[in-house]
Amino acid sequence: MRIPRQAARVAVLDPDGAIFLFRYDNEEVGAHWAMPGGGLNPGESPREGALRELREETGWTDLEPGPLLGTWEHDFTLAPAEGTSVGVPVRQHEHLYLARGPRREPADGVAAAHAVDRILHGRWWTPAELAAAPDPLWPPQLPALLAAVRDAPPGAVPDPVALGYVPNEAPPPPEVLWTHGAALAAWAAERPLPLHNYRVDDVGLHSEDIGNGWWSLLRVEGGRAVLYGIDNDYSESIAQVPPVDLLAGGPSWLPWDRLATLTDRGETFGFLYWWADGAWGRAPFPHSVREDGLRSMVPDGDGEVRAVLEALEEDGAEAADVRRMGTPEAQAAAARTVARPRLPAGRGEPAGRRVPCDLPEQYAGVIAVAMRAADELPRTTPAAGPALERLTSWLRANHPSTDGHGALTAAFADGADAGNFYRRDGFHDERGTRLGDEVCGLLGDLRDAEADTEASSGRWMYLRVRVTADTVTVDRAHDHLPDWWRSRYGSAEARPGTLAREMAARAPRWRPSWVGLLDEDIPRNGAPAALCRP
If residue 295 lies in a helix (H) or strand (E), which one and from where to where? Predict the structure, then answer.
């Protein structure tokens, strides 16, 4: 699991527009170039952290962070702490600031900070050198960010750019994908290919017969592009609980209407990437998603072209013709024979956008997200009574500990809930397993005893009881999913049918903020996008 981490960096430009970068080494992403900066200390603002990191890593005490250039998120592994051998995987959110100063080298006395941060060395980069950098840049859009600064009127700074989440592993640039795919589309128009056929229509480039999936590439005005598709075997981003919103954080220029039309027709995506300012971006994934199908489905070069040419030669094509077709010049020439459609830029994310939510456990997961964000309505704590005493006695007697300590965590399941396999009232644990009849009876007695006279304020849905030889601690949740409920198994978090029956029995003022979701046909119409983001 990746740990969220806040960080800040400073783009220091000299009078000629060159930028100073450090070359960092990292076990997850390898060697890369980045601005001076790093993680924030507790209670530190991004600007304060940027100033501290700049001084620690360069020794330049006469500079301060200026305007904010932008923000971005990315994944990497922190170097192991002293005395440990295992690094910490993090998802880092960075603020990028601008500063201007003289061209110089880092001051003496910063070697220790460089060793801790695994800084190999530093150097100044001219704009031309930066645009042709052979090693990865953090962020990859850095040349475009700085070009906007250089092109701004004197004294003006462009508005900050939210780059969103930028993956470490990304497909080739769209022009590379287009050349190879369009060449195959041109050859396929002349005769059926033995494998990997493509076509180009008035929207974009589409793979045809990959077998276990497909992908499409759409060009968008302004030098931008969208790549999406699915690998039916390896796209772990589908069937997640709750569903994954592949358009979360998508830029306003995306062809939102086109993409919405596809999902409305029931098209399922396993991956979706957008290209702008020289880099690919995508929505952040939950930690459980290790593979979205991109690497297995989208070629990382001309591998598909070579496979088709080899298959053609095996089918009897002239070897000389195959070699001619395989040259970069022939591929580019073939690609130029097909249309190059370009879609107009979108006008922003549609209000009220929905994410497909097909599975019952996904629906339950969406309700659970809303419940975790809700507050518990104020209620009077019930007084201890015979029902709690009986449950406490059972817990002390049946817990394997011999010192009187014990704990029980349970959630209610209504017998009339279609998702309740047992078809009778009962309680389940955090794994979704029904508890035994004896303890279910004790819990039911306690739940009934603690309801108010008319039950208008509702009964608790989740309960935690902890006992020692001398004490009893009871936690109840009527309206929200508490932090101590550790389930991550969809319907073990929330049971929509059970919740709907409970909320219908409550007086209106005792219904929590998320209750309206129970009246929506989410499996048919999709879930609110805001509830489908990690």
Answer: helix 294-297
* Selection from 255, 170, 249 nearest residue 219 by Cα: 255
CB 442 within 8 A of CB 394: yes
- Rounded Cα distance between 415 and 124, Å, is 69
Between vectors from CA 442 to CA 458 and to CA 468, what angle results, nearest 5°?
A: 100
Rg (CA), the chain: 29
CA–CA separation, 163 and 171 (whole Å): 17
Quick check: 270 and 235 in contact, CB under 8 A? Answer: yes
Cis, bond preceding 242 (omega within 30 deg of 0):
yes
Distances (CA, A) of 509 to 370, 457, 516: 18, 8, 13
- Rounded Cα distance, 62 and 55, in Å: 9
Cα–Cα distance between 468 and 395 in angstroms, integer? 10
pLDDT at 393: 92
Token representation of residue 152 = 């701004």
pLDDT tens for each residue of 22-80: 999 888 888 899 999 999 999 999 999 999 999 999 999 999 999 999 999 999 888 77
Q: Which two tokens stand for residue 9?
A: 């960096």
Residue 21 has pLDDT above 60, yes or no: yes
Q: Is 59 helix (H, G, I), strand (E, B) or coil?
A: coil
What is the spatial distance between Cα 240 and Cα 243, in angstroms, rounded to a whole number?
A: 5
H or E element: which one contains 466?
A: strand 462-467
Q: Are 9 and 145 contacting, i.e. CB atoms less than 8 angstroms apart? A: no
Say whether 75 sits in a helix, a strand or coil: strand
DSSP result, 22-72: EEE--TTT-SEEE-SEEEPPTT--HHHHHHHHHHHHH--TT----SEEEEE
3-state secondary structure of 192: coil
Angle value at C-alpha 401, between 395 and 406, nearest 5 degrees: 35
Q: How much is the average pLDDT of 414-435?
A: 93
End-to-end CA distance of the chain: 12
Comparing C-alpha atoms, which of 303, 308, 294 is closest to residue 196? 308
Name, in order, each residue with C-beta under 8 angstroms of 182's C-beta and a sequence gap of 6 or more.
198, 200, 205, 334, 335, 338, 340
Peptide bond between residue 139 and the one before it cis (omega within 30 degrees of 0)? yes
Contact 246, 237 (CB under 8 A): yes
Cβ-based neighbour number of residue 362 at 10 Å: 23
Whether 238 contacts 522, CB under 8 Å? no
What is the per-residue pLDDT for 210?
Answer: 63
List of residues 6+ apart from 209 with CB closer than 8 A: 195, 196, 197
d(CA 459, CA 357) in angstroms, rounded, equals 29
* Angstrom distance (rounded) from CA 421 to CA 148: 60
Residue pair 332/340 in contact by the 8 Å Cβ criterion: no
